[in-house]
Amino acid sequence: MQLINDNLKTLISFLKKKKADYYFISTSDEYLNEYVPEYNMRLKWLTNFSGSNGYALLSEKKNFFFTDGRYLEQANKELPKNFKILDLNKESLTNFFSDFKNKKILTDTKCFSKNLIIKISKSLQQSNSKLIHDRKNLIDCIWSERPKEGIEKFFILKKEKCGESFEQKLKKIRPVDNQILVITSSESLCWLLNIRGYDLENTPLVFCRAIITKKIFEFYVNKKKIPRDFVSIYKNIKIHDISQFDQRLTKLSKENIQVDNQLSYFFYKTLGGNKLFFKDDPCKILKSQKNRVEILQSRSAHLSDGIALVKFYCWLEENYKKKKLTEFLAAEKLEEFRKENTNYFSLSFPTISATGANGSIIHYKPNRKSSVLKNGELYLCDSGGQYYGGTTDITRTIFLGEKPPEKLKLIYTKVLLGHLNISMLKFPAGTKGFQLDSIARYNLWNDGHDYNHGTGHGVGSFLGVHEGPQSISKNPSNVSLKPGMIISNEPGFYKNNSFGIRIENLVLVKKSLFKNFFEFETLSLFPYELKLINFNLLNNIQKDWIRDYHNQIYSKVSNFLNKKHSNWLKKKIKISN
Known about the structure:
Helices cover 33% and strands 20% of the residues. The strands form eight sheets. It has a six-stranded mixed β-sheet with strand order 4-3-2-1-5-6, sandwiched between helices. A six-stranded mixed β-sheet has the order 12-11-10-8-13-14, with helices on one face. A four-stranded antiparallel β-sheet has the order 21-28-27-24. The termini are far apart.
């Protein structure tokens, strides 16, 4: 990796002209989504970092990069050599900035939450330093070959795919009296309006904003993306071009404005700062609890996914020895099998197809020159699909060969035990996700092991594969797990430069037989890697659960398979007593 690239050199030269000491930038854009379109991958263009969570502080002499445990190894491989890389779990941004003396830091505050910028600004004030808003976005000014924004028309979901009409949803969130509700989340509005689009590669969003009162719904979107039938169906909506949204905010009354806690700092200042009424976006908790139709659509999507996965792993087992299969080719083949389903829309995220040591990179993304799958190695595949109505995400780790080493079986089984602990769990109403996290880690912790990511993230309904506010992680959250929520169950283990193991299913929170208790229904439909399990470490209840789960997979999936694939699946689901 070179010491510094030309893009960074250009930025630094412009920074001098602005008489600023540093430039602060993140992987996010003005929509504050986890993933961004190619034309907004500013940090990647500058530094080559391709992950979805990172912050960079750039200058002529010193460059700092902050990310979480999922991307530390990736950052070390992708960033120029002169970057100091810091773990966000160990070094907070606000504490870091408190050491700066008499510095001017340029940043586009549209791309950061108001909470983060307020905290950083307070830290800088103590040392006579300050953040300066980059009004024109310096990166956009110097990025001469920046890709153009796509202009594809969005589409309207039929009620049989989403379960509730726009009018029904609007009644639940509409302000009363003279309140004004400002929604800046595109994902919330796509859910509310039952629309989906093409503005993100793996998430069917159209970028939009809205201002809602008791009587008026103002919808802000690129007008070129509006389909012909939208105006006739949504007659009571006032449509404006999204370019007018910032200016419209300056004209709103400074009182009774409700905004999301995750509002960008730029909008926070535009709306008048402290006069605002901060509350969680009302759409977020509503869309996290899937209705009856959304649950049915999710089950259907997971059935389609299960069929594709059986075909893929059967094909992989037959061909990895005969042909020089690369991680990239395997990922492409998996998508081919998913595309056989007429309800398939796209991947739900770039497929993590990783063999051997690459499996230790938690969010590894193969390219055309990726590694060849080899006999005697672990192969980790984390993938998912967007289907009309449902979103999937599943990880399986398999062994390429007949007899895996006992040390791999031991670690795989410890990961599986954590996965089973969550799968089989019953918990009282009011339980938060962070209260369950250690249950998944217990068996690994007993051996002095851990994994550097959360145990579970929320999943949308034909929307974001990472959806809040629900999660299972070490990070405290006040959000209780409630019926209808879909969440991942994905403990893992990663040995740097050696291998990675992750086992992931999506699960649905539902009522238990016990009063005021909930449990999980497993949605994903593909068997575990039986030859990697040390069954001596499992009790009879855990063995029975796996057996029942595998039998469910076969009963649901086999009817849609030919004889070859059905026989292959039958062999894969048998477990020892």
